[in-house]
Rieske (2Fe-2S) region (Cupriavidus pinatubonensis), 110 residues
Amino acid sequence: MHKGDDVCSVAELKPGEMKCVFVEGTRILLSNVDGKVYATSDVCSHALAYLSDGWLEGSVVECPLHGAQFDVVTGKALSAPANGDIETYGVTVADGRIFVASAQLTSAKG
Ligand code: FES
């Protein structure tokens, strides 16, 4: 079964860290929440800012530009001025590598 695109090693993403990777030209935010890896869009739903430049606390990422917050597990927008949720993507960890499925699990909704 195709696991998705090999984006980086598990060792590159420690608990509490996040990182931007590219899957088929799309910016993906990888977040390690207590040892589990999640993938979402790296682009804020408010304007053009990269969430990987922001801050991760638990499962909540804060946008560096105007402070909107998103849950990296569900992609849900948690605070203004977000304009809707962010996409989430499937993640598989195997043989010390992280794979991200290019198909979205959810779509951002207004
Ligand atoms: S661009 Fe992210 S809150 Fe405005």
Notes: The radius of gyration is 13 Å. The pocket of FE2/S2 (inorganic) cluster is lined by residues 44, 46-47, 49, 63, 65-68, 81 (CB under 6 Å). Strands lie at 5-9, 18-23, 26-33, 36-41, 55-57, 60-62, 69-71, 88-94, 97-104. The chain has a mean pLDDT of 93.
